Amino acid sequence: MVKVILFLFTISFCTQLKSNAFSEVFGSEGAAGIENPKTRSLSYTLQYATLAGSLGYILKSLHDSNFLDPLGLTPDSIENLSKLAYKKNLLLDKHSANIISVNQRVDKLNYLNNLEKTLIEKKYSSKMIELRNNNNFSKSIVNSNNRNIVMERYFEE
Prior knowledge:
By secondary structure, the protein is mainly alpha-helical. The protein folds into two domains: 20-90; 91-156. It has helices spanning 2-14, 21-26, 28-35, 37-64, 76-79, 83-86, 94-121, 126-156. The longest helix is centred in the C-terminal third of the chain and has 31 residues, at 126-156. It is elongated and about 110 Å long.
């Protein structure tokens, strides 16, 4: 794709243009239309609208990529990633700290409930069977270690 664009760009500079763009694209009506003040006014309006749209798109892209952060223009999507880094006042009162703590607990409980729900729904999948087997193996190792510790205590006495 890039090679095609570069090829067309190079060809456009190597060839000599012998006709007017308006007469080439629109014929004699296009060239005559530019002399008409109403058509010329419409042409300027379309040019300004195109320029404003292009600049708006470029500025929006720069804003969304956090390019304008040194000017103090940080997008909300980046501010939401790190409340600690982008929050203006870091001092919290007791009430706000309690709210944050409760919200974190609720988020944790919601996560665990959703995880449990997905585990129940996919109880017999190969991945879940593997996880259960690995968990059983880990439990048996822990139980074996506990038995060994208890046996060592009895034999020491």
